[in-house]
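Q&A log
Question type: sequence-to-structure
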Amino acid sequence: MTNPIPLKDRMKIARQRMPEQAPGLRRQNFKEVNLGLDIAIAQKEASRCLNCKAAHCVSGCPVGVKVREFVELIVAGDILGAAAKMREDNVLPAITGRVCPQEEQCEGVCILAKKGESLAIGYLERFVADYERAHGQVGLPRNAPATGKKVAIVGSGPTALSAAGDLIQRGHTVTVFEALHDIGGVLLYGIPEFRLPKQIVHEEVDNLRRMGVEFKTNVVVGRTITVDELFKEEGYHAVLVCTGAGLPKFLNIPGENLCGVYSANEFLTRVNLMKAYRFPEFDQPVYDCRGKDVAVIGGGNTALDSVRTAVRLGAKTAYLIYRRSETEMPARREEVHHTQQEGIQFMMLTNPVEFQGDDKGRLTAAKCIKMGLGEPDATGRRRPMPIAGSEFVLPISMAVIAAGNRGNPLVQSTTPDLKTNEWGYIVADDNTLKTSKPGVFAGGDIVTGGATVILAMGAGRKAARSIDEYLRTGQW
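Response status: OK
Response body:
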């Protein structure tokens, strides 16, 4: 079906807005902030698509979703068809529709953005994924005939799940090994319930199970079993390592060992996997911040997730401390906007230099210094410089450090012929994701360092293509 609205009229339609919980209400619960589109709004938004022949949105998507085709199906009213079309390239659409930074990917290159606002591809992606879930008719792709080849995937985050979905479709036997007790990796432990409900992740994982992927939890590859044992004793023909960047970085300032100082990794993992967001139904597994002053240090999405989580856990005052200005924050603009709406106090151009505590070792304050911006550094952002004599003390009872991560070192430390770089990340070919060890591939954050969910999924698809070629040809 062709879009019935003339091209010039499509450009006059305003981008549709996502309904969301009111800020004052959502501060008090862990329910989703964005509420999703109904079919009328979704079809109106889809009708804005210009059906560009070049389709820059497809090349702008790390997993190559056929945007134009699935949007046309929405316009035609075939929502289940649109979902099935999207799943040809994206096995986790309900997830990416919620957490993918579309403004930097598909929407960032949308032609509509040249004269107005881009097509809301992310909103439409979420809409069709939620529609098929609500109607119990998930359009899973068919698998090719079995090849007899076995692939082990280490880790169960977005790289792993994306690769597993593609490899099972190619007819290979796929087993995903996860160290924790639940499947999903950073999707489960790193992203709070109000942005990505756990049930969404569980359902997408169940879809992969229905396709034939096997999942094994509580298996620590590097301790429970090594990579070499996966080959020699378990009979796997290829191994994909995607263990992520879960080793937190700290500020290396005095007082980081005080009670009440967390890494964002530990804080969010305790809240998500140990269900702090369902207190008092579950015991409180984090330092109780109810009625207290909390500071989160950082300017990325993880920092925003942490400070918004602290508010929902009952913090009296929540500060976001960032050493650069708001302009330089790497977090998504939508998340910054939501954070500001929720009353979090932004302390820009500020940096802690010391945490102070009482005689019982509990955090009582952060000594901070004001910063100015100098010349650009290696990231292209202006380098923050301390301003002499600007120190001040901020009374707080809890601090969360969201200053980035490093690669999980366990697999590398027990696989001596697996080459790593100076930062501890696995060295893998950019195009094939082959490592220094024959039969072993690596992708996602364990290769690139911390990145987005969709870039990790793109790495998973790339790895799947390369593994498939290796298994079929035997050539390394």
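Response note: The two ends are 46 Å apart (CA to CA).
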